[in-house]
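[Meeting: bench + compute handoff]

Bench side (C.D.) handed over the final construct sequence. Compute side (W.E.) agreed to return the predicted structure before the next meeting so the bench team could plan truncations. Sequence as handed over:
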Amino acid sequence: MPVTVPVTGSSTYWCEHAWLPGGVASGVRIDVADGRITVVSTGQPRTGSVREGLTLPGLANVHSHAFHRALRGRTHHDRGTFWTWRERMYALAERLDPDSYYRLARGVYGEMVLAGYTSVAEFHYLHHAAGGTPYADPHAMSAALVAAADDAGIRLCLLDTCYLAGGFDVELRGVQPRFGDGTAEAWAERVTGFSPRADHVVLGAAVHSVRAVPERALSVVAECANGRPLHVHLSEQRAENEDSVRALGRTPTRVLDDNGVLGPNTTAVHATHLTNGDMSTLARSRTRACFCPTTERDLGDGIGPATSLAERGVRLCLGSDSHAVIDPFEETRALELNDRLAAEARGRFAVDELLAAATAHDALGMPDAGRLEPGARADLVTVDLRSPRTAGIEADGVFFAAGAADVTDLLVAGRAIVRDRQHRLIERPHAVLTDEIERLWRS
């Protein structure tokens, strides 16, 4: 018998296959009302709106820098070194204003929805005008992201990021003053003044890194987060660890832990180069770890200790970070395949563990999303099982075969955003991206 949440007036979806909490089932009927799932029952005859293929819970993009999307395919000169990438990133950051940021982010979030993401955490540090001068509206850049997400139909966790230094004991320079507020107290005052009236937004906070936020300021950020999502770049490259030990006598993980940044509402992004002690600290503090495999390989960061963290009980999640690729299936299978390369062994994660990492909305302050069960938000992502990539696969092997182009239909809180591979709110999102990115690089 199906479990029912009492409501009136529901929409009905019939799914050829659906990935429920107990695994993949066939002939699944899902009733939806007021943006939430009310009934889930299996072995049902076709009725209502038919979804051929496999229907998944909404996928969560736990780490995004929306403006980095304009770097895709443009950082390969001189063999594409890290310095090539950073110089182009700073050049791009100099060109954006609230209007162009809105247009770019609108296209980026549209691309995410088409790929199967229903929520995104935006690690937002591009706050001010040139030279660090605040806009007349100090929240103009944040408001641009909120509006872009609304237009694209994606749920947004806005992580206003504290960024105060260009390195250990190094002042902000070049374009970096656009990122900073002078002090952690000034950052906190600005952050707490932003309260958009938007149902699709969760407000959180972020520490850019231990390099960019002096140790004395870390507790201010942690206190400002006050139980909301708090994210931090952690040990992305070996040099960060070496500099931290040299400047502070401890690894970045230890510094964060000593200053109250780690905890069950915190997500450590990258977590690539950790000591055994660091991993134990993340586990003890119940901090999550967010891997961004396509960016980590694009930047040559390394392969993080995914299975070692998971074996200690650290919850894993995934993000597309710099958007070298926007494809949740690619990020998810890379979690497994990268670990196979590092370990020289197969079978690192079970498929239900991969699904859990791909749907970790709790890292975005949305614990009622990411599951196909009564009471959960009605986020449904349907994947074609008969495409050139997926033909003949077992349904629960979708993360090893499918790509973003295989997403056919998508609901966010019961609202149809993608239908027959077309975005219903933005006409030709890829054309929007082409126009805006070319405009930015011409400016």
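W.E. noted at the follow-up: Residues 59-364 form a domain with the TIM Barrel fold (CATH 3.20.20.140). C.D. will use this when planning the next construct.
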